[in-house]
Specification:
There is one protein chain. This protein is an all-alpha fold. It has a domain of 140 residues: Up-down Bundle (Ferritin). It is built from 8 helices and no strands. Helix 2 packs antiparallel against helix 5.
Length: 247
């Protein structure tokens, strides 16, 4: 046994090693704490604390949904036959690419790694890949109009998730405080109205393309696009009004 003496070189060596380890662990813990506390500051407001981990999960899923959306629109444009719909989806593809950049910036500002994997993010990616695969299958069949119809449905499914993501981000922004609230609200205000358009307009396109495929009179472009619908109430009114237009 080494004598307990402050000058003992072995004891000093052990102390130095422990100090180095402790310092490294402290720095790592501090970085993690900063990341979690940044998000945690969103809680403790109206209605009680928010689930910090689930807020992080929502943001990662939102980013992955936008990344998948780029692939979905890129594939959908290979399926499209209607020129008006093609122009619409080209615009939505550009906007979705911008949404990816916005979500990456949001995560970076919140001191979160945009490349971090989460269980939910993997599921979102898998769903997006499945939608792309469904369009590839329809293209391979070569049936006129069918790939376009499958693409419209794939976009509606993707935009349903995307639309919900941004609605929830808006809800978090309302209850957050400080920098978290500011960062999320700025992103929400920039993106939400575009997501409304993507969702409601493509739902209208999918409905009318199905009606056309059934041999009935379709309203193209759909009233959701003509009326520039961006809310559920206006979408319901547009769908109701199409009955008169289709007569």
């Amino acid at each position: 046994m080494y004598p307990v003496h402050p000058e003992n070189p072995v004891i000093l060596s052990h102390k130095n090693t422990l100090n180095v380890l402790y310092s490294s662990e402290t720095r790592l813990a501090s970085r993690l704490l900063i990341t979690r506390e940044t998000i945690a500051s969103a809680g403790a407001t109206q209605g009680g604390d928010m689930n910090d981990e689930q807020v992080r999960e929502l943001l990662y899923q939102a980013l992955e949904t936008e990344i998948g959306g780029v692939q979905i629109y890129t594939t959908a444009l290979r399926c499209v036959e209607n020129e008006d719909l093609k122009a619409e989806w080209e615009e939505y593809l550009d906007q979705t690419e911008n949404h990816v950049a916005i979500m990456e910036e949001v995560l970076t500002k919140l001191e979160l790694d945009p490349d971090e994997e989460t269980p939910g993010r993997k599921v979102v990616r898998n769903i997006g890949e499945s939608l792309v695969e469904s369009m590839e299958m329809a293209l391979a069949e070569g049936e006129p109009g069918q790939a376009q119809l499958v693409a419209a449905e794939a976009v509606v499914m993707a935009e349903t998730k995307d639309h919900q993501n941004w609605h929830l981000i808006g809800e978090v922004a309302k209850k957050a405080k400080g920098d978290v609230a500011k960062i999320l609200k700025e992103a929400y205000d920039e993106v939400e109205h575009e997501e409304d358009e993507h969702y409601y307009h493509t739902k209208g396109w999918a409905r009318e393309l199905w009606i056309e495929s059934l041999g009935m009179k379709a309203v193209l472009p759909p009233p959701e696009e003509v009326k520039k619908v961006e809310t559920a109430i206006d979408a319901a009114r547009a769908e109701q009004a199409r009955t008169q237009t289709a007569k």
